[in-house]
Specification:
The complex is a heterodimer of chains A (423) and B (388). Chain A is an alpha/beta fold and 423 residues long. In chain A, 39% of the residues lie in helices and 14% in strands. Helices cover 38% and strands 15% of the residues of chain B. Chain B is α/β, with parallel strands linked by helices and 388 residues long. Chain B is built from 14 helices and twelve strands. In chain B, 57% of the residues are buried. Classes of the chains: A alpha/beta (423), B alpha/beta (388).
Chain lengths: 423, 388
């Protein structure tokens, strides 16, 4: 750029204001109206219009602590007259910025970001549950969430019930006076079962129990649980929200009031994310809508291709009319995401693994939701140490493959799986 | 990487992003090391010192080479550093023949820096093949143009100019910043050197500076590498990482941004306060046919328009937008707006501004990822507020 850039027009002079200011007036300026498009929100929501030094992108605040110019300034802060940063564990400008963006995309009042998706669910449950309380899970759920509840939360006197996914009668039957939260994923992993969010919320409201949806596989592009009245929406932001397979993060979205205790406990437990990750998450969100359009397109086209492939037995993808949840999914989702599970016809686990090994574009790895396609065999990747009975109970068959479609060209992904299946 | 036959978007994600053999990491580690342990005294490994080569930079360069269809590419600290490297191929007495609407920074480099090394510069209208041919002199060693000119959005006839350069034994380099390798790949049309300000669409997020050169000829690459290593304007590892990350979504970004730009250009054309819209996607643009041949049906995301207003009213529009950010640079997810006369082309001599049509009423917008409706509403309100 020319050295003599004459900027006569800078009218916004807020750069001298405290960085951490989170006043209502400020927030109005920070978030474009909800009527604006999703990419407009992705690019702009949550960010200060005029940033430090006039920078267009949010600077990375690596500071672990924030200085006060005088004891008077400190007093103004401790007496609650001024909102600002204090110490990195309690808040950071990058954290505030990306939390506001995530809340705007989710259509929620507030968001609390964590160092990982697991830290997010642990942070929420630890702040909402006490000894003697009970929670009810639909049984198709992330195995680490199940493990935390059944093995660890139980040590603190919290009882976890699991009922069959989508069986609302069973869920209602399990509710009692001690029940504090209903938990479900939608879609679930790896079967992509979608639950009827409206009914889920109705059950919770009828019994005065809060509801939590892990919508990691759906993302706010495809599913808007808050609009149905769900209390908390959880995402492993490592997946589609970050989107580039290069950061770990988790987020809980909900109302400001309900999340206050959650945010406070995070400050005590310290499962905050780093400025670097928070910045990368904010950066990744800018292309969120574009990426999701591609993930959805690749997911649907690949699922259709697999369904018609002679070597494929069954395809789990909610966008296919053959999927048991298709009607529910079609009524509440805008698209169906990039995750596909399928089984290889007449194949044992070894033959199935050869299909996985033959893929040239998708790489063998856990996780999902990034621009790079990933492929895995659930039996080997996540359920290897389970007994055959448990695997059967969880619906994990030996010939099952899970593929996370990235944003590569659809034709390339189809050609790749085609050659892998013909091995 | 076995993906060379794959299509553009797939290569953008995978080439140069090989799985880290040490850990299996799906995204390669960022190597901040300035120096590398060698196998033995006088025995050199692949990397020795980070100015000469760095694994994170190499990965980015491999991605770019694949996307450009070149033998290799080089990453520099800025686009200007990349152009400077090209001019260092020349010797005292040599001449550069450049397009008349090149970027102001290139104009300044050619006129105020290269002249100190005894290198001459002539500007001609690069959309006029006869003008180029008749301006070539025995001393002319480099033709330099922009695939999409700034701010007129003129389109170069790359195959014809390349043929002319070849027959005259002259190097032909182009700045393809506005075009991006997703839409135009100049090496495929016989251009010798393609340069990008990677700060723009390649990075795409307004958060790293960078410049790149890609070439189809190994001997030319070796010369450029020699100069880069000797003069040292290499791109740092963190920016290389951010660039590589940005390139993964380049194709989806530029296509979405081009679609919005096309809609805005059509809308602006019908606006009563707008006298002229310069966008190669419009059929009345002089370069439209050429652009269709080179780019297909996406024409980039830069739009210039002329307001029926004076310098002050034009400035008022630029500072009244709420979504468009008043800033130089371009190509990012955030939409930007600027007045070429006072900003991007302020370093042109006043008489050259007049000569090359940089009028006071011109406004240049870089269309980002925001939705068309939001951007149109923003411009409509800003224009209405400036011209009552």
């Amino acid at each position: 750029m020319p050295a003599l850039v004459v900027n006569l027009m800078a009218t916004d002079t807020t750069s001298s204001q405290p960085i951490a200011s989170d006043s209502n007036a400020d927030k109005q300026r920070l978030t474009p109206p909800a009527s604006q498009g999703m990419s407009t929100q992705s690019v702009h929501a949550g960010e200060r219009r005029q940033k430090s030094e006039g920078a267009i992108s949010t600077p990375m605040y690596c500071a672990s602590t924030f200085t006060f110019e005088s004891t008077d300034a400190l007093l103004r802060f401790v007496e609650g007259e001024e909102e600002r940063e204090e110490y990195g564990r309690y808040g950071n400008p990058n954290e505030r910025s990306v939390e506001r963006k995530l809340a705007a995309l989710e259509g929620a009042e507030s968001a609390v970001v964590y160092s990982s998706g697991m830290a997010a669910i642990v942070g929420l449950l630890m702040s909402k549950l006490s000894a003697g309380d009970e929670i009810i899970f639909f049984d198709q759920c992330y195995h680490r969430s199940r493990e935390f509840c059944t093995k660890h939360l139980s040590r603190f006197g919290v009882v976890t019930h699991q009922v069959k996914t989508g069986d609302f009668a069973a869920m209602e039957a399990a509710i009692n006076a001690r029940t504090k939260m209903l938990v479900s994923e939608s879609p679930t992993n790896p079967h992509l079962t979608c639950i009827d969010i409206e009914q889920f919320v109705a059950v919770g409201k009828a019994h005065g129990v809060e509801t939590l949806i892990d919508a990691t596989l759906a993302t706010p592009f495809n599913l808007r649980p808050i609009e149905y009245g769900v209390d908390y929406v959880l995402h492993s932001a490592t997946k589609y929200l970050g989107g580039h397979n290069d950061l770990l993060a988790g987020v809980i979205c909900g109302s400001k009031e309900q999340l206050e205790s959650v945010r406070n406990l995070r400050g005590i437990l310290g499962s905050v994310n780093s400025p670097h990750n928070l910045y990368l998450l904010e950066r990744g969100l800018k292309t969120f809508e574009l990426r999701m359009e591609r993930h959805n397109q690749n997911g649907l086209r690949l699922a259709q291709f697999l369904e018609s492939h002679p070597s494929v037995d069954r395809v789990y993808y909610p966008g296919l009319t053959s999927h048991p949840s298709h009607n529910i999914a079609a009524s509440q989702m805008r698209g169906f995401g990039g995750l596909i599970t399928f089984t290889v016809r007449d194949a044992d686990w070894k033959q199935t693994s050869r299909v996985v090994d033959a893929a040239r574009i998708a790489r063998i790895a856990p996780s999902l939701g990034g621009v790079e396609s990933l492929i895995e065999q659930p039996l080997v990747m996540s359920y290897y140490n389970c007994s055959p009975e448990d695997r059967q109970r969880f619906g994990i068959s030996d010939n099952m493959i899970r593929m996370s479609c990235g944003i590569e060209n659809t034709e390339d992904l189809i050609a790749d799986l085609d050659q892998a299946l013909s091995q | 990487m076995s993906n060379e036959k794959a299509s553009f978007r797939t290569r953008a994600v995978h080439v140069g992003n090989e799985v880290d053999p040490a850990t299996g990491a799906v995204v390669a580690p960022v190597h901040f090391a300035t120096t590398f342990r060698q196998p033995g005294a006088g025995v050199w490994g692949e990397y020795d010192y980070s100015r000469s080569g760095n694994p994170t930079r190499s990965a980015l360069q491999r991605t770019l080479a694949s996307l450009e269809g070149g033998v290799n590419s080089l990453a520099f600290s800025t686009g200007m550093a990349a152009i400077h490297c090209v001019t260092m191929l020349l010797s005292p007495g040599d001449m550069i023949l450049a397009g008349s609407d090149i970027y102001g920074g290139a104009y300044r480099l050619f006129h105020k820096i290269c002249d100190r090394a005894g290198i001459g510069i002539t500007l001609v209208d690069f959309t006029d093949l006869d003008a180029i041919a008749s301006a070539i002199r025995p001393e002319t060693k480099l033709l330099w143009g922009e695939t999409i000119g700034n701010p007129q959005m003129s389109i170069l006839d790359l195959p014809s100019i390349a043929k002319l350069a070849q027959s005259s034994g002259i190097l032909f380099g182009v700045d393809n910043t506005f075009g991006t390798p997703a839409l135009i790949r100049p090496l495929e049309h016989g251009v010798d050197i393609v340069m990008h300000s990677a700060t723009k669409y390649l990075g795409g997020h307004s958060d790293c500076l960078g410049g790149t050169l890609a070439v189809a000829d190994k001997a030319l690459y070796d010369q450029l590498y020699y100069i880069q290593n000797a003069t040292g304007a290499v791109l740092d590892p963190m920016s290389c990482f951010l660039l590589s990350r940005g390139i993964k979504t380049l194709d989806v970004r530029i296509r979405a941004q081009s679609e919005t730009a096309m809609k805005l250009a059509v809308w602006l054309k019908g606006h009563p306060q707008v006298s002229r819209v310069l966008y190669p996607g419009l059929e009345d643009h002089p370069g439209h046919e050429l652009a269709s041949q080179l780019m297909g049906d996406h024409f980039g995301a830069m739009v210039t328009f002329e307001l029926r207003g004076d310098k002050v009213q034009t400035a008022t529009v630029c500072q009244s937008t709420k979504l468009f950010c008043l800033a130089v640079s371009l190509g990012a997810v955030e939409s930007l707006i600027e007045q070429p006369a006072t900003m991007s082309h302020a370093s042109y001599a006043p008489e050259d501004r007049i000569r090359f049509g940089i009028t006071d009423g011109l406004i240049r917008i870089s269309v980002g990822l925001e939705s068309y409706d939001d951007l149109r509403n923003d411009l409509e309100t800003a224009i209405a507020s400036a011209i009552a």
